[in-house]
Amino acid sequence: MSELASFHDVLFPLHVSFGATGGPQRRNEIVALTSGREKRNARFAHSRRHYDAGTGLRSLDDLHEVLSFFEARRGSLHAFRFRDPFDMKSCAPQAQVTAFDQVLGTGDGVRQRFALIKTYGDGADAYRRLIEKPVPGTMQLAVGGIENPIENFSFDAETGEIVFAPDKVPTTGQVVTAGYEFDVPVRFDTEQLSLSLRAFKAGQIPSIPLIEVQP
After folding, report:
1. Residue 158 CA: distances (Å) to CA of 6, 8, 24, 135
2. Does some domain include residue 172?
3. Which of 97, 101, 149, 207 lies in the 20 to 30 Å Cα band around 29?
4. Tens of pLDDT along the chain (215 residues)?
5. Are residues 28 and 11 in the same domain?
6. 170 lies in which domain range?
């Protein structure tokens, strides 16, 4: 009997992910004109992250743990959480998360929902990335420069939005900010794990590709 693809709310082995390689990919079309100039167009509005977890393997126990994880996800069928070793906080990697890290929007006295985002760059050229998988227990929120207790809001995992309690909606002009740690929703980007005990003992690292998905 076949299974439908879904998102498993489990974390890829953390010690393996911290040794992984990879990062964001952009898809652009570049056409060379007869004048020698280029015409460049973005194919997609958002980047998509690719990783290779094979570089994070340090022991046969690691190899077995990833093998078990692959089988439990039915290979590429089910997506899961992955902790990006290079970009997993609302702030710089070595900084402490605070409720003032990222601006989510400005209140109008009615708006109850604010998408969780991380901004890269400044001004008109800044890129705003939707964050859909914050790490539970790490989220901090402030309204108008004042930190809010957790009972004032909740997180809608289906939409990736902060939801204020009806009597705690930000008033007109109040800036909403947030801080958090987060995971990336990914799946295995392969149908087969090609493993060799002899090769692994000889220092040859297997490739374990992962690709970001929309959960």
Report:
1. 13, 13, 23, 15
2. yes
3. 207
4. 557 779 999 999 999 999 999 999 988 888 888 887 888 887 878 899 999 999 998 888 888 899 999 999 999 999 999 999 999 999 999 999 999 999 999 999 999 999 999 999 999 899 999 999 999 999 999 999 999 998 999 999 888 899 999 999 999 999 999 999 999 999 999 999 887 777 777 667 788 999 999 86
5. yes
6. 102-179
Residues 164, 191 share a domain:
no
Instruction: Give start and end residues of each alpha helix (H) in the chain.
Output: 14-17, 60-72, 197-201
Which residue is listed with tokens 């997609």?
44
Residue 182: strand pairing partners: 134
The owner of tokens 């809608």 is: 156
What distance in Å separates the CA atoms of residue 189 and residue 45, rounded to the nearest whole number?
22
Within a 10 A sphere around the Cβ of 186, how many other Cβ atoms?
25
Classify the phi-psi angles of 74: left when phi > 0, otherwise alpha if psi is within -120 to 50, otherwise beta.
Answer: left
DSSP conformation class of 54: G
- Token readout for 124 is 């008109």
Residues 135 and 157 in one domain: yes
At 64, give phi and psi (nearest 5°).
Answer: -65, -35
Looking at the domain assignment, is residue 31 inside a domain? yes
- pTM (predicted TM-score): 0.89
In the chain, the amino acid numbered 4 is L
In angstroms, the Cα distances linking 43 to 6, 38, 57, 112, 190 are 27, 15, 34, 33, 24
